[in-house]
Amino acid sequence: MTKRFAVGIFEDEDVLLNAVENIRAAGVKIYDVFSPYPVHGIDDALGIERSRLPIAAFFFGMTGLAFALWLQIYMLGFDWPMIIGGKPHIALPAFIPVAFELTVFFTCHGMAITFFTIQGLYPRPKVPVMDVRATDDKFVMAIELDETSSQFSRLTQLLRENGASEVNQKEMTNN
Any transmembrane segments, and where (predicted)? Predict the structure, then answer.
């Protein structure tokens, strides 16, 4: 499916932040903003909600901790019982290093997999790029266009009034 975008190029991040607020206040929905480095405050300006990834991390960590404790209790208490140094089969202080390692392991891998899945960052043949200058020194704002042809001229004027140095129309195909 091919989508059309109005792509505004900005020279400065402060101008971009003001433009995002003004354009959203004008009732225009911004598709995304691309920048060469993270811009402080851009998430709030775009109205992006706070991520729930820390909640997922907590549950991945608890899963890792439960798995580590179950694994050690099962192996040392039932599957292959051994008495080491006179300790009982379930010696929790001795389980702490393995429990810590598996908690961190499950948390890291679970968060990475969740992040890549939610963001759609998976290997694909062609990665869409709005403007390659966003990887160098420019800031790019993309606004999805509908089928009407007059919308682009209106958005061009709006982007120029808010400090865009250049406005282009791009077509992108979803893979």
Answer: 55-74, 94-118
